[in-house]
Amino acid sequence: MAAKSQKQEVLMRPGPSPEPLRLRILKGNPGKRRLPLNEPQPPIPPAMPEPPPHITGYASDEWWGIGPALLRLGILTECDIAAFSAYCHSYGQWRMAAEALARMQAGDPLMNAQIIKSKYGDAVANPLVSIVRKHAGDVVRYAAEFGLTSAARARLSAGGFAPPSPPSKFDGLLGGSVVPMKPRGDEDA
């Protein structure tokens, strides 16, 4: 039994989930840890791809409104299309449910459509309220994955991509490669 629990601990690492390299670069590497620049990167599409057939209405508006910006930042890769589709779909569902609830609330100034009558005449919680809440939670969760929430943006560096700094004489010492230095006599030139 103890061996099984040790194996589970190895599979489930504590701490935050790993982030894509592009997001780590945008954040500015606050811990100054060496970034794995040889990390395999999925290809970035040359242009914003067409949305899948199930992305319609408000979801399509979100696809074309946010997608091109994510593509320009290099965050939306070919591997992220399914997750971005899920984000857009949740956004569309949330928006439709929220509008339906708002229409109901306009006609119910007393209870604000939080409680409705069941077919038996009993007062029950309006199912639209939980649908709106569920999809809003999904939207925020997916949005955080793409850096679309204010908290996620606050973690990004203000300048975006910074040009690489000139190599230091100490670069590569821990990684095994050595950066060649100028000979001492070339300092005046």
TrEMBL record:
Species per Swiss-Prot/TrEMBL record: Bradyrhizobium sp. LLZ17
User: One Pfam family name from the record?
Assistant: Terminase_4
Q: InterPro entries attached here?
A: Phage_term_ssu_P27 (IPR006448)
Protein's name in the database:
Phage terminase small subunit P27 family
Out of the domains of life, which is the source?
Answer: Bacteria
* Ranges where the record places region Disordered: 1-49, 163-189
Q: Where is the signal peptide?
A: none
- Ranges annotated as biased composition (Pro residues): 39-49
What residues form the membrane-spanning segments?
none
